[in-house]
Write the structure tokens for this entry.
Amino acid sequence: MGRLEIRHLRALCAIADTGSLRRAAVSQGYSQPAMTTQLQRIEQYFGEPLFERSTAGVEPTPFGAEVVAQAREVVARVEAMGPRGTRPAAGAGRVLTLAVTNTPMLPGLLARFRGAAPDHAVTVTSVYSSAQIVGMLEDGDVDVALAVDYPGQELRHSPAVAHRGIVTEPSFVAMSAGHPLAHRMEVDLTELADGAWFVTPDDGAGWPGVFYTACQVAGFQPATVHEFLGDRGQLQSMIADGLGVGVVQATFAATEDVVVKPLTGTPLWCRYLLAWRVGAVCDELVDALYRSAVAAYRELTASAPHLRDWAARTYNTLPK
């Protein structure tokens, strides 16, 4: 196969979503042998298997999960570029408005929700502050949202808004592969006391207060803090150059130049949650959104070996 095409990316997403070559073939209008042949050619293109086969179906390999995640982004962008006539008109059906904080779950959630509720279009607004997201829900500016909070500082909102936790994950630290502690299985917060930190700004839900509290409990105050809210690639580059370390999401992608390590004792946690305006979204759609988010998160864990290893040591399972 000389090059990848959109149909190949759609096929990969369908296989990952259904967990079955047969079901993926049906959803894409292929025969099962044709889908199998297409997958073999795609895997030949990448030079290694993208899915593990078993009697229960297929699951992405760690590398396959990375490829699928990128495929979802490309497919979503291509579909968003469709001609005006293919876009939902104002009165042509239900359009859900979704506000989303900084989370890599978004592409996988949207892809799965599109399959679960094909009659419902979604428009997305990126909003960093979870407090602002709550305000948008209460004011009726959006219908649903992905937000964050922290243990002991659960998200506050009026009875007009309801929420449901998706996953509570530990916060890890990203550092240069050349950092003196990069070889360690986990890193104690106190060992980073004298270094520089990249810290995202106030999110209205408790961050970065929980970070500074954890440092205080550990007996120090960070000497140098760079407040940063920008492109993940930029952050990776600065960390790779040794300009500082950063508290990151547990699914933050490691590279050859950046390693991601658990913090000893897990002093920092973050919860992702689905919130919605009561009466604006029916229970069936809430369930579909929730299931889509959970499945998207579990796909992310497949490409985050540092999270999988931590979970295996801590719980002997993956985080729920």
Q: What stands out?
A: The domain at 170-269 is CATH 3.40.190.10 (D-Maltodextrin-Binding Protein; domain 2). The CA atoms of residues 78 and 184 lie 41 Å apart.
